[in-house]
Amino acid sequence: MTTEHIATANLKATARRGAIRIWLEGGKLLAAGFNSGDVKYRHELTDEGVLILTIDENGTNKVTMATPKKPGQLRPIVDMTCRGCTEHFTGGRMDVVYGVDGELGVIRISDAKVVK
Question: What is the pTM of this model?
Fold first, then answer.
């Protein structure tokens, strides 16, 4: 699978009720195709501890849309928790890589301490 790289971010991983909370929003989500309240995605935690979010019409999660800061501006939000991530996300920071595989948006999230 070849991913077209769009952007990278380093964000804080927040523990919440025995899980890691993932909160992503804005233009990088738009560029990766996570661009409307109708977009669904699935998530998968690999054996290496990388959380992968992939646009999937049969996915169990949905991108939400927040009130725009400026009129006419889209503001998508991914707000989810990952219970299995607590053993992999130990550094308090996470590296987020936004990309596109073919026509599907893909976001890869990993603990910043283990990224090379």
Answer: 0.86
**Is there a contact between 2 and 106 (Cβ–Cβ < 8 Å)?**
no
* pLDDT tens track for 58-93: 999 999 988 777 777 788 999 998 888 888 887 788
Residue whose C-alpha is closest to residue 61's, from 76, 75, 80? 80
Residues 6+ apart with CB under 8 A from 72: none
Please tell me the distance from the alpha carbon of residue 98 to that of residue 53, in angstroms, as a whole number. Answer: 10
C-alpha 56/C-alpha 43 separation (Å) is 9
End-to-end CA distance of the chain: 20
Q: Give which of 68, 95, 102, 82 is closest to 9, Cα–Cα.
A: 95
Can you spell out the DSSP letters for 63-77?
-EEPPPSSTT---EE
Contacts of 19 (CB under 8 A, 6+ apart): 81, 82, 83, 85, 86
- Show Cβ contacts of residue 99 under 8 Å, excluding neighbours closer than 6 positions: 3, 4, 5, 6, 32, 105, 106, 107, 108
